[in-house]
Here is the input.
Amino acid sequence: MAGAVSALFILDIKGRCLISRHYRGDISSVEAERFFTKLLEKEEDIESQGPIVFDNGVSHVFFQHNNVYLMAVSRQNCNVASLIAFLHRLANVFEYYFEELEEESLRDNFVVVYELLDEMMDFGYPQYTEATVLSEFIKTDAYKLEVTQRPPMAVTNAVSWRNEGIFYKKNEVFLDVIESVNILINSNRQIIRSEVVGALKMRTCLSGMPECKLGLNDRLLMDAQGRASEGKAIDLEDVRFHQCVRLARFESDRTISFIPPDGSFDLMTYRLNTQVKPLIWIDAQVERHARSRVVLIKARSQFRERSNATNVHIDIPVPSDATKPIVRTTMGSASYAPEHDSIIWRIKSFPGDKVYMLGAEFRLPSVTYEDGTPDRKAPIHVKFEIPYFTVSGIQVRHLKVIEKSGYQTLPWVRYITMAGEYEIRLQ
Here is the structure.
């Protein structure tokens, strides 16, 4: 081996790091995330790509075993063949200790895993790779998975995330399109952070092994089909799919095709770093007096009139030594929460293009003069939900379910926008 290994990583099927062992200190854990991003940019069939991904001067040598990836990372010019051989020997050692090498067995035996990684490699160079030799001095008890004999996947056409023989009397699909708005407004009323984080959450109650096809108003797909004039198209960014989605199909024609797991799962997540108009705008005025404060809050909804925000919570900070305030509102109710040093304004229903007011007066026993101790700079936090509405404009154009028995399916689609990290700083 011409060069030494910098680190070993074991990742789950979604690219999340389960185990990492750094040997030379010249590699960051971020490299594991960069590797998986590069992997998704290529084809769905990982085996056709070869066992190495090279990125920014770093070599990632890997192979997939069941639902985990074993990966060696190096900045040096290593012998790829010997690294692949080492990773396969590593997998054999894990199977010797745990019976089956899967995510569950690694989580149950992480102590043994780290002991093995320390003995099998020293400062990036392979040492002992024989399980029988290692077992002489690593005698920690390991939890072994019960292995059952299963027919080959090619024979059953099975997938790892769905069992055969599922049956429902009523076949239904529930799809929730949920978007969270993250906004930070500074004390000069300028928006310094604005993004939308979305998720397509599904719950399937389907018999057999159904094939699902989902169509969105994605700009690339609609332009290709000549549908740009039929409605608003959006540009999907930072898209991540559940493992059931056929990535190669999506890359080729933007079709989201998949055999769904049974029950609830996140089909897709996405992020839009775009300038979002604050859905609920807050203006705050604070009058400072000796031993007292007067606060006037104006909340204005900035979405279409036919939409309606529900469960609106506006958390208004007050000084920690404030007495119980006198509060008046034009809508909703307000209560003093001394344990949080805040006034919580609750509005059950907030229609679009409306303005509501809150006024509060409270005493400050510890403040003697108007220009005395400055008030704390905690921001105003806002929580809300707006059903049947999305900020990005994403739409489900169709949701088709195809199963060989030909049963009829009832699809249900719901849209919800909610506040994520929604903060307004005070002057």
In short: Residues 147-157 have pLDDT under 50 and may be disordered.
